[in-house]
Design a protein that fits this description.
Number of helices: 0
Number of domains: 2
Largest sheet: 7 strands, parallel
Strand content: 15-25%
CATH class of the largest domain: Mainly Beta
Number of strands: 13
CATH topology of the largest domain: Pectate Lyase C-like
Strand order of the largest sheet: 2-4-6-9-11-12-13
Shape: elongated
Distance between the termini: 62 Å
Length: 190
């Protein structure tokens, strides 16, 4: 099926709720204050696009391509990124709510999460090599068998994970954040 192509267009305050946007291709487009609640973005590709102050809830991302896509000030609650295409997957998040989102088994090396809440998200078996959680709240977020090599956690807070169950070579932590790495030992630090 041929994809509908949209190039270099700025979409402002468009309500895509319950809309079928499958099989579309967006190249260098900007979405500002758009609503994607229950939208079907399956089999669509977004290349060099940015989403600003947009809301995503119960959106379908089956076989969706996110190639050099930035999300700034967006609500992405409970989004299942595992369904996205792996090919050229490249995303950036700033001032976003990513609570309850799932990145299971994704390769998202060098991904920046800046000033985000990422509560109760799942990064099980994800490759985050070289990524950064800059000033992010990681309360109850799962890191299990995750590649965290060279990941910057220095300004992140509320993270807790088992060092023995993750690859953490050359990861960066602040001294105050080390407490979350010792939780499994149930020790008292004063």
């Amino acid at each position: 099926m041929k994809k509908t192509l949209q190039e270099k267009i700025t979409f402002t305050k468009v309500d895509y709720s319950d809309k079928d946007l499958s099989n579309h291709e967006f190249d260098a487009c900007i979405f500002i204050n758009c609503i994607f609640t229950k939208s079907d973005l399956s089999n669509s590709d977004f290349m060099d696009c940015s989403f600003k102050e947009c809301s995503f809830s119960m959106v379908k991302l089956n076989n969706t391509g996110l190639k050099n896509v930035s999300f700034i000030g967006c609500k992405l609650l409970g989004i299942d990124f595992t369904k996205c295409k792996d090919f050229l997957l490249s995303i950036y998040f700033e001032k976003c709510s990513l609570d309850y989102s799932v990145f299971l088994r994704k390769k998202i090396k060098n991904t920046i999460f800046k000033d985000c809440t990422i509560k109760e998200a799942d990064f099980t078996e994800t490759d985050l090599t070289g990524s950064g959680f800059l000033n992010c709240d990681l309360t109850r977020t799962i890191f299990m068998h995750t590649v965290l090599e060279k990941v910057d956690f220095r300004t992140a807070n509320n993270y807790s994970f088992d060092l023995e169950l993750n690859r953490v070579k050359k990861a960066k932590f602040s001294s105050s954040g080390i407490i979350g790495l010792l939780d499994k030992y149930q020790i008292v630090i004063e």
